[in-house]
Amino acid sequence: MQRVILASPRGYCAGVERAVDTVERALQVYGEPVYVRKQIVHNSHVVRGLSERGAIFVDSVDDVPEGATLVFSAHGVAPAVRDAAGARRLTTIDATCPLVTKVHTQARRYAEAGYTIVLVGHAGHEEVEGTTGEAPRAIVLVESVADAEALQLPQAERLAYITQTTLSVDETRAIVDVLRRRFPHIEGPEKEDICYATSNRQSAVKELLSEVELLLVVGSRNSSNSNRLVEVAHAWGVPAYLIDDAGEIDEAWLEGIDVVGVTSGASAPERLVQDVCNWFRGRGVPDIGEQRSVHEDVVFRVPVELRRAARPAA
Going by C-beta distance under 8 Å and a sequence separation of 6 or more, which residues neighbour residue 303? Predict the structure, then answer.
């Protein structure tokens, strides 16, 4: 091993930063415990750290005591979840990423206008469940090019598509191309739904792949955008592995390898990447540098519920 190159940008996006900050501030404002529906973001280290500070992660609103404080995760929730929280008189704080909220708004508007909506996404993902909940009778899920080719819809019907925010840019483009070919009248968002951070991280990996023989992606198994980074490398013929942290690196992967690329998904803290760098330094790798690509300066304010609660009384 001679060299490690770090992709840039990598790691936390503005939506994840906001979500984690939301839980931390909620603990300061309301005290322990603060409940969080599902994982606030899809990273085991983040969830573990917040649990140690007093956050309690639950699968259902029904698991939260009446009157308690509940944070909705960055992936968004269906209206039925909000209704259930209201019925239990919970103090709710919405940490849904604003870019996910944009997709929810599109779904409602299309449904109210009488459209059938093709949602491009992965079944079972929390973001897809939340978006589908906005217009369950109007939404049809498409997961692949094959699904798009097999989709049966009346040609005269008002039709639109929206997408999950953390998909493969290339795969989504291929799916949308099929939808547009088969349904020329289909409408779509003015600006693509795949978030800037997902697109930027995939682009940075593509730039890196011509220089490396192996890619390590720091991220948890249930992180959609992290998995997509692995898939990008595989599509370019470069071996890639998803690791939760440096402890999961298998030295056998590195046999005969001189240059390794390292990146991280949008929900992975930078400290985990630095732990990977230290792992390589501990094995005598002399050259650890950073590729420079797109500069990101997007910032989202914490939810209005927290800003109001933190204001001093007049």
Answer: 18, 22, 93, 94, 95
| Interstrand relation of 287-290 and 3-6 (parallel, antiparallel or unpaired) | parallel
The answer to whether residues 310 and 29 touch, using CB atoms and an 8 Å cutoff, is: yes
**Whose CA is closest to 189, among 179, 197, 202?**
179
Structure token pair of residue 114? 């009488």
Render pLDDT for 157-204 as a digit per residue (tens, 0 to 9): 899 999 999 999 999 999 999 999 999 999 999 888 999 999 999 999
304 pLDDT tier (thresholds 50, 70, 90): confident
Q: Which domain holds residue 151?
A: 99-182
96 close to 16: Cβ distance less than 8 angstroms = no
**Structurally, how many domains does the chain consist of?**
3
Residue 103 belongs to domain with CATH number? 3.40.1010.20
Catalytically annotated residues: 127
DSSP 8-class letter at 112: H
* For the chain, percent of residues with pLDDT exceeding 70: 98
Q: What is the pTM of this model?
A: 0.92
* Residue that is last in its domain, among 132, 152, 182: 182
